[in-house]
Amino acid sequence: MPHLTGSSPAPQRNYKAVIFVVLFILIAAAGLSYVKWWPYYEKAFKAATEHSIGSSILSGNADTAPDPSWSAAVDYAKAYFKSVWKAAVLGILLGSLVQVLIPAQWLLKVLGKASFKSTALGGIASLPAMMCTCCAAPIAVGLRKKNVSVGSSLAFWLGNPTLNPATLIFMTFVLSWKFTLLRLVFGIVLTFGVSYFANRFAGTSNIPEEVLETTEEAVKQEEGPFLVRWLKSVGSMLLSIVPAYLLFVFILGAARAWLFPHIGLSEGNHLLAVIGFAIAGMLFVIPTAAEIPIIQSFMSFGLGAGPAGALLLTLPAVSLPSLLMISRSYPKKVLAFVASAVVVLGILCGLSAMLII
């Protein structure tokens, strides 16, 4: 008798994978439309007509941030989370769904190698998301849990805040095209260059070819009921990411005056100020595009173009909370390299601003 077999499991898996990927794209598009795309469309008109997108979250309409205190911490945390909570929830949702909806094998083939192509694709994929560094962190963590390479996941994480198309549009209307040009040039170097070279600090240069060629391990990780796997992913992410995030937003909110002291016209445009603001900007945490009113406010009170240029890159790129949020997913050498590179590029951006602005 001929041997009868049922349908092959491989086509079934492929069909299921396509359905899951389409579902992920629909959820991401719906979430980003509500949280990012439509609000930013409206804000672009505000930037074009009023040459402003709001007051500085650091100091409001004052020339200095409030003195360190519990009240300063609470006030900043309230303002910050009011601005980012929707994007933060979306980031955690997408970071968990990328682990359970997108097949590991697909991600490995596209983003799994320590090549410039994988890094470039990660950076390009960040452009529609337009998230701040903390809201993009859960997605970067989710990508790393699927064995996406260090370079491509970092490019996605860094590209979100630094190459945000909406922020570049706001910046052009509110600050000037020169600031936008600086941000674009140094943002590209950070997103694609620093991310690519970060692979050198990751310990391994590539996902092994045998992993890319077989689906055995990927299928094993994706077995089990979807709801159970998703809840496990969300729970793990909340426990590992949220506590440090909340704590250091409060701490940095209280320390605003120490990180960003008042600098007047006579002393606000020299190398030491550029270095100091580059370091402070790298550590501090802000919502998406908040660097624009911060710089606008500081310059109205006398801050020079150099420190402003440093903040232009370092404020959005990374922060102490976001670095802590991804710290379990990357080698410490990688995080140190990225933080140092942000400061160095911020200093160079500031020095460039002193020449052209």
Please tell me how large the radius of gyration is: 21 Å
Into which percent range does the helicity of residues fall? over 70%
Instruction: Name the helix and strand elements from N-terminus to C-terminus, one letter apiece.
Output: HHHHHHHHHHHHHHHHH
Number of helices: 17
Strand content: under 5%
Number of strands: 0
Average predicted local confidence, pLDDT: 89
**Terminal Cα span:** 84 Å
User: Which residue ranges are poorly predicted, with pLDDT under 50 across at least 5 consecutive positions?
Assistant: 1-7, 205-219
Largest sheet: none
Helix and strand content put the structural class at: mainly alpha
The dominant shape is globular
Helix-strand blueprint:
Layout: H1 9-50, H2 70-100, H3 104-111, H4 116-126, H5 133-145, H6 150-162, H7 165-174, H8 177-198, H9 209-213, H10 216-221, H11 226-254, H12 256-259, H13 271-283, H14 291-300, H15 305-317, H16 320-325, H17 332-356
Helix pairs in contact: 1-2, 1-7, 2-5, 2-11, 4-6, 4-8, 5-6, 6-8, 7-8, 8-15, 8-17, 13-15, 13-17, 14-15, 15-17
